[in-house]
Amino acid sequence: MELGMVGLGRMGANMAERLVRGGHRVTGYSRSRATVDAASAHGVPGTTDLAELVHALAPPRILWLMVPAGGPTEAMLEALLPELTPGDLVVDGGNSYYRDTVRRARSVTARGLGFVDVGTSGGIWGLREGYSLMVGGSPEDVARLRPILETLAPAPDAGWGHVGGPGAGHFVKMVHNGIEYGLMQAYAEGFSILAAKKEYGLDLARVAEIWQRGSVVRSWLLDLTADVLRRPDELRGIAPVVADSGEGRWTVTEAIELNVPAPVITLALEQRLRSQETDPLAEKLLAAMRRQFGGHAVQHE
């Protein structure tokens, strides 16, 4: 099957390479010549000309977008759509906000094109392990994409599924990432407690290894945590700043709008936001208030 991969960042390039290994023909696009050349070295020919990419594919075409959510996705669609013809299929495999996806699906399908949103999980491991794919769109468009999805997934019948109409794939992926925030926070807090119990001198990597077999808290995320804990020198060099991709925020917003309590995910998001503060005002105010009403001493920077 033939496909155009728009966006050859690490994940897009890895997905394209997995498809090529699975017998599909993939042509990639990136604005960067160096990125195109790197993908070509792994069997994925490419171009820096979007129109050239489209014309290299036989209609009806499939164009899979792997570009950052928000403005970059919007701009890429604006540039791509005039090059397409009725019957072509556009796939958004990035982490787009599902409300944007619903709007875009209406706009794209009004042109006589197909549109599928695919929430994609698997990160840098997807090339080897396969990707978890949460798919939204019409049954007809998803059926057309099925051979691609079966190749990208861990197995043809596992790790992917059509979860609903346009936007459903990105909605499910949004909540998936919200859950991820909570799981990561729980592991981080648990190992922090273990590390604080100095009298036992616990080997955190060894504890993680014990939990990897037979424990109810075992998971792939724990496996990755154990790998990090085996390299304490590397961990010491990491700044305590945790970025948020936006999907945790969207999950919390959706929970509020749906009147669904989500305290764990919400607190995990707040912890990430706190880690990004370079000059936290709240703690300074707390210290100042204690001095005001109780005469308590404050520490100065």
Describe the structure.
There is one protein chain. The protein has 301 residues and is an alpha/beta fold. Helices cover 52% and strands 13% of the residues. The protein contains 14 helices and eight strands. Strands 3-2-1-4-5-6-7-8 form an eight-stranded mixed β-sheet, with helices on both faces. Strand 1, helix 1 and strand 2 form a beta-alpha-beta unit. Helix 8 packs across helix 12 and helix 9 packs antiparallel against helix 10. The protein is globular and about 75 Å long. The mean pLDDT is 95.
Query: In this structure, how is the largest beta sheet organized?
Result: 8 strands, mixed
Give the number of helices.
14
Compute the number of strand runs: 8
SSE order, one letter for each helix or strand: EHEHEHEHEHEHEHEHHHHHHH
Return the average pLDDT rounded to an integer. Answer: 95
Task: For this entry, give a set of tags.
single chain; 301 residues; alpha/beta; 8-stranded mixed β-sheet; 14 helices
